[in-house]
Design a protein that fits this description.
This protein has 137 residues and is α/β, with parallel strands linked by helices.
């Protein structure tokens, strides 16, 4: 696949960092070699806020978490959503759908049931990391 646009929710990225050979880690590797990650300023802010939480220090040092998310953001395509969405049970997740709609994302990768229950959203698949990897087999 070429010219594909992927969106990762925050917890899936966190799981990818904790174990790069886990299903989320492998999904992130596949996404980065087959397309471009999409973010918005609001998504980037959430990434930084969540990855900065002290409770993760016992798993991965802050410096490693900061470098990981900085690399994700630096290599992603920044999208300014032009469509407002208010459909998700968890209102904080609407930002992922707004970017997906604005940019015509190929897929949203998430383990969050609040997003997965909406699959597909306006013809945009919302899939687990495992289902995402299955798209390439």
């Amino acid at each position: 696949m070429t010219n594909e646009f992927w969106i990762f929710d925050t917890n899936t990225l966190l799981s990818a960092l904790f174990n790069d050979n886990s299903t989320p880690g492998l999904a992130l590797k596949k996404a980065r070699t087959t397309g471009t990650l999409l973010i918005s300023a609001e998504i980037a802010s959430e990434y930084f806020n969540v990855f900065s939480r002290d409770k993760f220090e016992k798993y991965v040092a802050f410096e490693t978490r900061a470098a990981f998310i900085e690399n994700i953001i630096t290599n992603a395509l920044l999208i300014e959503p032009v469509t407002s969405v208010n459909i998700c049970r968890d209102k904080k997740d609407n930002k992922f759908l707004e970017v997906a709609l604005t940019a015509g994302a190929t897929c949203v990768i998430s383990g969050d049931q609040d997003l997965l229950i909406l699959n597909p959203f306006n013809d945009i698949p919302i899939v687990t990391p495992g289902a995402f990897l299955s798209m390439f087999n």
